[in-house]
Amino acid sequence: MKKWKLDSWKNYPVKHIPxxxxxxxxxxxxxxxxxxxxxxxxxxxxxxxxxxxxxxDGKAFLLQGGDCAESFAEFHPDNIRDxxxxxxxxxxxxxxxxxxxxxxxxxxxxxFSKPRSSPVENKNGKELPTYLGDNINGIEFTEEARKxxxxxLFRAYSQSASTLNLLRAFSQGGxxxxxxxxxxxxxFVKGSSQAKKYKEIEDKISDALSFMEACxxxxxxxRRLRTVNFYxxxxxxxxxxxxxxxxxxxxxxxxxDTSAHFVWIGDRTRQLDGGHVEFCRGIKNPIGLKCGxxxxxxxxxxxxxxxxxxxxPGRLTLISRFGADNVDKFLPKLIRTVKKEGLxxxxxxxxxxxxxxxxxxxxKTRPFNNIVKEIKKVFAVHQSExxxxxxxxxxxxxxxxxxxxxxxxxxxxxxxxxxxxxxCDPRLNANQALELAFLISDEIKKNSQYSKNxxxxxx
Length: 459
Ligand code: PEP
Ligand code: CO
Fold this sequence. Notes:
The protein has 459 residues and is an alpha/beta fold. The chain contains twelve helices and 14 strands. It has helices at residues 23-33, 42-56, 77-98, 152-172, 193-214, 239-244, 275-282, 297-307, 327-340, 368-385, 430-446, 448-458; strands spanning 61-66, 102-107, 120-123, 126-129, 230-235, 246-248, 255-257, 262-265, 287-291, 316-320, 346-349, 357-358, 364-365, 391-395. β8 (262-265), α7 and β9 form a beta-alpha-beta unit. α3 crosses α4 (152-172) and α8 (297-307) packs across α9 (327-340). Phosphoenolpyruvate binds next to loops.
């Protein structure tokens, strides 16, 4: 294999990277960003790999969620707080009901660029370049807005830095304290069936905390009761930016992409001889790889070997996204081949991207039932293949949006227009996300593979 260099990806074909009219300006911007402070520290990515190695062994569960595309318009502390709250609530449900530690990773603080199915968009007889994410062009349907503008990268960097700053404060500053679980509730979830089940967990935790307090263990003398580890992630799509944020870690001499703790390769850019795979093989962060219906088992093995040549547990997360009706057709073959080769991977399930459709009312949506169906199928397949369904990868928000149909609120196609705010794909709202957390807890409890680990962990 040829030697990896920070810019060796440029020697390979790349898809979904925009052409900028003004390349001098792009270079100027990129050269400035190269000197900006890293957003995350290499040691944090290493800790994440360590936690993910437990997921690989079925001793923890990976929860990864957030916007499909972050935007400048939705940038607000309340939105960051509410997404964080839902992730904490989901993690609490999973930890307390399924007795598994949860590794929490947000699609946040840098999830801007989008690969799109068509390079152009047509509206009222007019054709314009597609919207590619707020760090590249604007969503407004005008020629001006749709031109890639390199200066948008400054704003995206700054938004990512302040988002991360708030997340760090929430994770470490008392907000994530287990004595505060009741405060993580979002107003509009109150009164729902999820809220009642969540209340039972709150009571259980409160009893456990009182018992521990009586034994002398409390949040004041035990950090783990008042802080959480929360990590960030995004798709490593816009390689000029990812390259600019990739630095040599002075403690090890290794390259780390410091734009996020975890980055993934999308389903449209995972070509074995493409620039995205080339770039990601050289960085030491934990890496995700989206696995859709066109991925062949032999190709997956080659990708795993290229991205994780040392077969390090926790380095590589395979994120399956087939669509509810395609899981049985594609997933078992991939799992069997990976197992036969003895490769250490995490299998996570993205039940969103294979279940997108256009509603009769003209909105891109995802029926909650199909999302649930894909998750159940994925758990059943892993159970019968003897592997772990180790994670969930979802597009969600803490806002009370109406973007995916169904769920306990019974959002109908007609309701979609009420609060449809996404800049790209439809997200689960807090109610729907919590419902999934309860469902997954039940699936984990049913799964004999996991119960073996839960018993071992307890003994
Ligand atoms: C995404 O995660 O937003 C995405 C575009 O997914 P995929 O690459 O699986 O289509
Ligand atoms: Co998406």
